[in-house]
Hints:
By secondary structure, the chain is an alpha/beta fold.
Amino acid sequence: MKFIRVPAYIKYLFSVYLAGMGFFTLFRLVFLATHLPLAKEIPISVLANSFLMGFRFDSVVSCYILCLPFVFLAGLSFFKINENHLFTTTNIFFVLVFSFSFLISGIDIPYYTHFGNRITHAAMFWFDTPGFIIKLVFSTPVYWLYFIFFLTLSTIFLFLLKKIKRKVLWTMKEISPIAKPLIMIGFAFIIFAGTRGALNPKSPLKWGTAFFSKYSFANQMGLNPLFTLAKTTSDSYKPENQRVNFMDEKEALQNVRKYLNVPDDAIKIERRQASGNHSDLRGKPLEMENEKQKMENGKATYNVVLVIMESMSAKFMGTFGNKNHLTPVLDSLMNVSWAFTNFFSAGNHTFNGVYSNLFGMPALMGRHPMKDFENMQQPSGIANELRRFGYETLFMCTHDEHFDNMGGFMRQNGFNKIISQNDYKQEEILSALGVPDHVLFREVISRCNELKEPFFTAVLTASNHPPVIIPENIDFVSNQKESDLASVQYADWSIGQFLKNVQKERWFDRTVFVFVSDHGRFVSGDVYDMPESYHHIPLIFYAPSILKENKKIDQLGCQIDLLPTLMEILNFDFINVNLGINMLKEKRDFVFFNEDNNLGCLNDSLFFVQRESGVNSLYHYRNYDMNDYLNKYPGLVAEMKRYAESMVQTAQYLRKGNSTP
């Protein structure tokens, strides 16, 4: 390419800009190819607009990268310094910074596959356990492909920069002393405009600009992952974003009192849940073995085993329309249990699900509840509540207990003992996630046999999570070609083996088994950037000798409702100081959840999404309608927004240890 007579450093920077833009476009093409099934219903014109939008976001990132080298080279251009040395120095800078950008772009592709959105600061939640994450990533074969792709492009980029430097040096010409500062000022303006993404200084390119169509995938594809990571990370460190500030806390508390039927003059948000009144919402008696637990020496006789299933979306189950026959065990349980069909997770991470299931509090946006020092001592929780009735408590997982600070948090909040990776045989540990599910369940039975009754055992599975490793030499064969679907089948099979074996134990008839997920998973066919399939999960209470009448309960519920609902089933006196409801006697108009800094709220037909980008939407989610009905139902939108924001604001208030306004 023949350049006009401009300073050598401008030729150089412009060439680097073009190279970076080309590589970012290549990553976007790979992103599209990897997720091609999600684009099959999207018009070509919309996809073309996604690439045009992507060009704008890529340009913003590239111009930011150019800023420091431009100041460096432009300032030194007025001195007699060897340009070869200057360009060598800036080449090193560009290789490091663009290679990091390419690494993030490579990580972003499987990140989107897993979470259904582009990478954000949430990826930093696990930086305190780098060894675990590195082992997890490199034990997943598909991640190696992206890593090799990243290394290859970074190497090519290095050689391309060397070629650019040689060509620019070879074509250098003297520039007029008068023209030199004018050209510098003009190029500075171009870079400044490039970092803004627009010529209007009052209207820079914003995250929400990418949401130009009704197609979530097309909107997401237009974003640059380095832009989303940098923007969310910088925002998270702003003082005003350290805590949610939706509304005044007194207003939020007043709203929540109304939602939970707490008197306005009540000092605390607490409700007494009394035993002995065993009837459902309709006043119909709940058919159980006894109206009250049998008490022996002042202790209850019903044990509880709570299984938190990794990534088990309701959308994997035949009960909810899946045709792949992935979950025959869970589907059969739905027909012989008390099963909740409209139950939703609190967040999109395992720590969200573990926390909300066990402690009855919502996930806070952009926060890790089990790592916050102020949050280490919980006012309530299943383990602490059951210990008041003489229960022994045990928490079991497959991997290192220090991951997500689970071990320390559980010990602080009611669990007598933790079983984790170091408690299994070394040869049974297959990956960073520890032992496979069927080994975990075998250990569950063994450990429960050692406990004094009554006991509460919480179990966290892991096999339905990358890296997918199906154990060999077991009585399981998957008929699925995709490893992600095979892992669902294996997880379901492991539960079946557990139930088959546990029925032989003396304590089986005296135990309530609870099956719930930490969260769902992005399932093909989900069209939303805040995937509904990531939050719709099963909740099953299985106790054939205790819960006599099988039920399918269709009312809305979420993970914070598990604690009060379980206490109702056990028929214990209970003071609920959290934000969950007893789903057998109370009713929710809405459920709410979050994905990092995006907030969702839905009723039985409509799904409100409040995005960090500032773009909100309202969908008819039952049939995955992509049309946005935000302007059609302004009153309902305002109500859903107020409900979700009030709940999250109040949750933050309560987690600070406050009990009065």
